[in-house]
Design a protein that fits this description.
This protein is α+β, with helices and mostly antiparallel strands. It is 25% helix and 22% strand. It has seven helices and 17 strands. Strands 8-10-9-15-14-13 form a six-stranded mixed β-barrel.
């Protein structure tokens, strides 16, 4: 007996298969098209997000507590986005079909305001920055759907970056320590914002070093030990002291060499001995460090710096600040931050006993009166610096490991 389906049944199954194919093929194509277009959208959003994050970080790094910070942050953000491309063109430009726009950075005093995009502020108070970037891209498959009238679709990206909470460990800062005037003052350790201090290298006996012109209070300091015995590049002690003071502690894989931590004890740089005040002469390594500070003002080393190993090469590495003027208010300073030094505040400065780090604070180096630079040849190792507080971000550091309520932070991305 023939058990095969009748011809009419086979025809019905074939017709059903064709109908299903007619229905499923467009659905499958639509799903494939949706996946492709969705992938394009996510890829474009990722590009815009990368640009926004980089611009926000670059802008936040320029927030140093001055009135000029707003303009510097805007310029840094624009310069950064110019290095990112959208549709084959730098972000912010257009090819006539696809358009991308970058808003000026929004500056905010608090993270909450930055996240909510509310209560924008000026440069001196700004601690956080918000970047918004938008772009249009063409849909490939879904643009042919009859419900869509425009093949372009808008994509937006936002990033928020700012200065973090106070650091417990600060890296890349200057190895010069001063003693707290009032250790119970968690905000300023007894230092007075806007006051110009006459820094002099610690010495014993009398007469104590006189104040430099322009300063109103005396401040003793010492060099903390950051000599790297394993250094390969510029290993000489004189060049290391210069580099430490010219640009902060050089990069090092050993955090104990590159960083300072609150509550840790530190000792004086071995060859930066404390002399009798009446000798009118600081150790050579102290002069080397002063030459490093002076590099923030001028690119040509003075005669006092001629003994530093490799000084001709070193002098080309560290650019001078863009603003060499004297100021009575820190907010008036319009430079790029090269003159801001971040130094450990210790319980007491000593030529022999260990010193405990209480925190980190910042000063603005002031040129010698009648000059646009420092005097590295000063026999007392003196220079003038204005106390600024905790205004500028530190290059790197950690937030954990201590309990402090004030101090400089580092730039972090929040969104």
């Amino acid at each position: 007996m023939d058990t095969r389906f009748p011809t009419s049944k086979r025809s019905e199954r074939g017709a059903t298969a064709v109908q299903l194919l007619v229905i499923l093929v467009p659905v499958a194509m639509a799903l494939i098209g949706f996946a492709v277009d969705l992938g394009i959208i996510y890829s474009i959003k990722g590009e815009l997000k990368s640009a926004a994050s980089a611009a926000a970080i670059a802008a936040a790094q320029r927030l140093i507590g001055t009135d000029a910070s707003a303009g510097a942050a805007t310029a840094a953000a624009q310069a950064t986005t110019n290095n990112y491309y959208f549709g084959g063109f730098p972000i912010g430009q257009t090819n006539g079909t696809l358009i991308s726009t970058v808003s000026d950075p929004g500056l905010f005093a608090t993270l909450a305001d930055a996240m909510a995009s509310a209560n924008q502020t000026g440069g001196a108070q700004a601690r956080h920055v918000r970047i918004n970037i938008t772009g249009q891209t063409k849909l490939l498959f879904w643009s042919f759907m009859p419900l869509l009238t425009d093949r372009n679709i808008g994509v937006a990206a936002t990033a928020v970056a700012g200065i973090s909470a106070p650091l417990c460990m600060a890296c890349g800062i200057e190895p010069m320590a001063v003693a707290a005037i009032d250790s119970s003052d968690a905000t300023d350790f007894g230092l007075i914002p806007g006051t110009k201090y006459s820094f002099a290298y610690l010495c014993t006996g009398t007469p104590q070093p006189p104040l430099l012109p322009g300063a109103s209070q005396a401040m003793n300091y010492v060099l903390l030990n950051r000599l790297d015995p394993n250094a390969v590049v510029f290993p000489d002690e004189s060049s290391q002291a210069f580099r430490d003071a010219a640009g902060g502690v050089p990069g090092n894989t050993d955090s104990g060499q590159a960083c300072f931590r609150v509550n840790n004890t530190e000792t004086i740089w071995l060859n930066a001995a404390v002399n009798q005040c009446n000798t009118n002469q600081v150790a050579a390594v102290v002069t080397n460090a002063l030459c490093g500070l002076d590099a923030r003002f001028e690119s040509t080393p003075t005669a006092a710096c001629s003994g530093i190993a490799g000084i001709d090469d070193l002098a080309t590495i560290y650019p001078p600040d863009t603003d060499l003027n004297d100021y009575d208010a820190f907010t008036d300073y319009a430079g790029d931050g090269r003159r801001i030094v971040t130094i450990p505040i210790v319980d007491t400065v000593s030529g022999g006993a260990p010193m405990t780090v209480l925190g980190f604070r910042q000063f603005l180096l002031i040129p010698a009166q009648g000059s646009t630079a420092l005097n590295p040849a000063d026999s007392f190792g003196r220079f003038v610096a204005m106390y600024a507080g905790s205004v500028a971000p530190v290059k790197q550091g950690r937030l954990d490991g201590c309990q402090i309520s004030a101090g400089p932070g580092k730039v972090v991305i929040h969104q």
